[in-house]
Amino acid sequence: MSRLKGITGLLAALTVVLAAAGALCGAVSGLSRDASLYGARSRETVRETMGLSSQEEITTAIGLDAQAQEALAQQIAEGMGRAEADFALESLNAREQAHLRDVRDLMLRLKSASKVCFSLAAALAVVIAWTGARLTKRRKTLLLGVAAGLGALLAGGLLLAAFLRGQGFARLFTGAHELLFSNDLWLMNPETDVLIRMMPQALFERAAADAALGALRLFAAVGALLIAIEGLVGGMIRRHLAEEDKA
Description:
The chain is mainly alpha-helical.
């Protein structure tokens, strides 16, 4: 029985981690398809970071007026969700277009990873319902497992916070690009590339905060669903076992 408790607790912890990973991947990929990130939010961030006071000044800084940027933003956002998008956009040069294709491929992989993580978490919820069905202190075992999973996530979050405090967001941003991309297309020149002018570091910092918040919301929703799955399946299994014991 103690072995069964350990297995159930470990599976509960793994389910929490998988749900969190799926939520983060889903939130990031979803944010990449938000046109406001490349349009209105971009212009507002440029205005604030550069201390500009008019739309004309923002247009000069970015190289696109609001209407042209909004059209470009819609095209980028739509392309992030389509594997066949080539980003052959008039406002962007060949290097920028190639980088957007790389980003699109990454976002599609994150979307797929989110689905895989959620599917595995749901499958584990069913397994947990089965392994915990005969435990006398099932809820305590599950709570300990969930607490372990949340503790692991908290530890990871604290490590990330410590890194950001010591190295700064720019170092994290650079390291992530070096890890995720096999080329240097993400190294852009403000003199020639529109993307870096319309997406300063401050925009990515805000986007990262939005993605984290979105991931928390999605994690909470998925967590509630997993609890419902475990409760429903577990109840059916326990009723079946009770009927077998009576027979």
